[in-house]
Design a protein that fits this description.
single chain, alpha+beta, 4 strands, about 80 residues, 4-stranded antiparallel beta sheet
Length: about 80
């Protein structure tokens, strides 16, 4: 099965949260309510340096995905 790069998720236990799941490496879940990120990968010290450079653009892409989805829903 091929998954989209981003998925929008919610959970009734967290009614205010807006979760975006990034399904490609490096996989993560971001809660747009508070910008908390949960990485679903384990990284070596060498990987962490590269990850910090890439993380900002991935989080911006996740936010843009959410904005696009909301705009499509409202249309």
């Amino acid at each position: 099965m091929e998954l989209p790069k981003f998925l929008l998720a919610d959970n009734t236990d967290y009614p205010e949260a807006i979760f975006i799941v990034h399904t490609e490496y490096p996989r993560f879940i971001i809660n747009l309510e508070n910008d908390e990120v949960e990485w679903m990968e384990e990284f070596s010290k060498e990987d962490e340096a590269d990850l910090m450079e890439e993380a900002e653009s991935l989080i911006e892409a996740a936010t843009a995905f959410y904005d696009r989805e909301v705009a499509r829903y409202d249309a």
